[in-house]
Amino acid sequence: MSRRTLPEINAGSMADIAFLLLIFFLVTTTMDVDTGLVRKLPAMPEEEEIIDDSQIKARNIYVVLVNAKDQLLVEEELMDISQLREGAKLFLDNWGKNPDLSDSPLKAIVSLQNDRGTSYEMYIKVQNELSAAYRELRDREAQRKFGTYYAELEGENKKEIRKMYPSKISEAEPKKVGAN
Amino acid sequence: MSRFKKKKGTGTPAMSTASLPDIVFMLLFFFMVTTVMRETTLIVDNKLPKASEVKKIEDKSLCSYIYVGAPVSAMKLKFGVEPRIQLNDSFKLASDIQEFVAAKREATAEEKKPQLITCIKADVDAKMGLITDIKQELRKAQAFKINYATYASTD
């Protein structure tokens, strides 16, 4: 048996084939967004249940209103979105010092109410600033206690910090006001 | 003098393109791995807002997506320009959400049901009225875990 050496296959077109596939995947690919703000909705209130919020002292509620023109009214004062984070932090981290602000972060509640005409973009901005306020306070505590960021903590340590600054963002039952 | 002439004659050697397929394959594999074939074709404009305090969804298979936005330009004549809700592949009303969530719940294994999450992918121009309606329906359907899809931005 004479063993002839096989002629080598020309691999010059390999690049072309690979390019073709590459372009196909480039075109079809959609970098899907899998990031977002996670929230938990409250259960539907019972029909006869009367929401009694008179138990909560007014000083412990941080009222954030957003109107149909995307303007912010925080604690009955007009506010720019850029100040909301600091405002919320001041309120949460008051520990009873200023009589207008909260007793403690445990009792503090952020009450968010938006209009039907508020833009989604603004709503997300407000939600984001409020979460940022909580996150910054938690980060500060985590740095002080464990020398790391809140997001990097695990298990008990994380729970401990979360207990100190529980995130209480309450959204009002929808009302029909303003322009749609 | 002769040395000078020699140099002129040689010129630059042709660049070897032998490693070109390797480079292309590398890119190809990257895109093959990262690509996700979208199951639903979007029929609404969907420009998501930006936020910095974002979390990543761990398991996308547990996610049911609600798209909100104005119909795409091809659909504008038929469906108008007001933002609408898209479930699966068609426009739906807020009242259809309960059924939609129930169907997803039905299709999920029992032990994974508590982890089900609803992702609201709403356009920046959508109004909160519509979002509030969706939220109310989700509360009625007892699907309390929601995720407002946003791009991650560094502040």
A few lines on this structure:
The complex is a heterodimer of chains A (180) and B (155). Chain A has 180 residues and is an alpha/beta fold.
What descriptors fit this protein?
heterodimer, A: 180 residues, alpha/beta, B: alpha/beta, two-stranded parallel sheet, 5 helices, 8 strands, 33% helix
Backbone structural class of chain B: alpha/beta
**Which segments of chain A are poorly predicted (pLDDT under 50) over 5 or more consecutive residues?**
none
Instruction: Count up the helices of chain B.
Output: 5
| Average predicted confidence as pLDDT of chain A | 83
The SSE order of chain A reads HEEEEHEHHE
Adjacency order of strands in the biggest sheet of chain A: 4-3-2-5-6
Total E-strand runs of chain B: 8
Helix content of chain A: 25-40%
Largest sheet of chain B: 5 strands, mixed
β content of chain A, as a range?
15-25%
Return Rg of chain A in Å: 27 Å
Broad shape of chain B: elongated
Q: What's the pLDDT, averaged over the residues of chain B?
A: 85
Distance between the termini of chain B: 65 Å
Most extensive chain-chain interface:
A-B, 44 and 54 residues
List the helices and strands and how they pair.
The complex is a heterodimer of chains A (180) and B (155).
Chain A: H1 14-28, E1 35-40, E2 61-66, E3 72-74, E4 77-79, H2 81-92, E5 109-114, H3 120-146, H4 155-164, E6 169-171
Parallel strand pairs in A: 2-5, 5-6
Antiparallel strand pairs in A: 2-3, 3-4
Helix pairs in contact in A: 2-3, 3-4
Chain B: H1 2-10, H2 20-34, E1 50-51, E2 55-56, E3 63-69, H3 76-79, E4 84-87, E5 90-92, H4 97-106, E6 117-122, H5 128-140, E7 145-149, E8 151-152
Parallel strand pairs in B: 1-8, 3-6, 6-7
Antiparallel strand pairs in B: 3-4, 4-5
